[in-house]
Amino acid sequence: MKTKQSGNRSEWKFVASMVALTLFCGGALFVFFKLTGSLHRGALADFDDSISNFIFGNRDPLMTSIMKGITELGNLYVYLAGVPIIFFSLYGTNKHWHRSIEAVVIVLSSFLLNTFLKLYFVRPRPDAELRLINLSMESYSYPSGHSMTAIVFYGFIIYLVMHYGHTKWVKYAVAVVLSMVVVLVGISRIYLGAHYPSDVLAGFAAGLFWLLFVIGWLRYRGFKSS
Fold first, then answer.
1. Cβ neighbours around 112 below 10 Å, total
2. 179/173 Cα distance (integer angstroms)
């Protein structure tokens, strides 16, 4: 009887989590399409200008150095360098080493998805005189790749910590710190003149959708195999 009750609780918990993931996934997709529709109508100029001008007004040499350092946390090589840490952390505690492979797959797939979206929308980057870093002349702006991959990678780490962590305060501390990292990476892209604010928001929305989609698939696969 206890086994049956435990099984029923697991099933309801799984269903509830899938419903929540679906709702948040749909919400992220809605935001992305809403921004994209506004982009096509040319309705984002005032929004982008007001936020960009406010951020540009706070530029100074020290802040520029900080933002250049923060934006590096959104580079692909940083993610790939972090995979061994995930591997050894999970292998030493729960033997779930395969999660490091999943981290690589989810980051690379989000990078490829972002590349496809940029080539589809072909939105030019902000004017060169506004930029504080060098960028490829052939790269496009919408959605922000740094923002998209940051929310995917660091969000996946938050998921792993919340799922496998044992200490509650550590879980929430990691979630708060990494969430701040994601937000700061997005702000750094605006500050450095690499993206418009709407690029960053679209990157967050697309990245959140992909993150939740993959997590949902992993939970479904794990539930079916249990």
1. 10
2. 10
pLDDT in tens, 45-63: 999 999 999 999 989 999 9
Active site residue 195: yes
Q: Is 40 a catalytic residue?
A: no
Give which of 202, 218, 226, 220 is closest to 35, Cα–Cα: 202
158-171 tens-digit pLDDT: 988 887 777 888 88
Catalytic entry in 40, 163, 166, 195: 195
CB 151 within 8 A of CB 212: no
Tens digits of residue pLDDT in 106-132: 888 999 999 999 999 999 999 888 888
If we measure between CA atoms, which residue out of 150, 207, 183, 186 comes closest to residue 32? 207
Total tally of structural domains belonging to the chain: 1
Please name which of 155, 157, 76, 70 lies closest in space to residue 111, comparing C-alpha atoms.
76
Name the residue range of residue 19's domain.
2-225
78-211-47 Cα angle (round to 5): 85
Residue 41's identity, in one-letter code, is R
* pLDDT for 61: 94
- State the amino acid at position 37 in one-letter form: G
Q: Are 86 and 160 in contact (CB under 8 A)?
A: yes
Q: Which two tokens stand for residue 120?
A: 């589809």
CA 131 to chain centre: 23
Reported as a single tens digit per residue, the pLDDT across 5-46 is 555 667 777 788 888 889 999 999 999 999 999 998 888 999
- 174 or 220, higher pLDDT: 174
Catalytic residue among 96, 146, 163, 166: 146
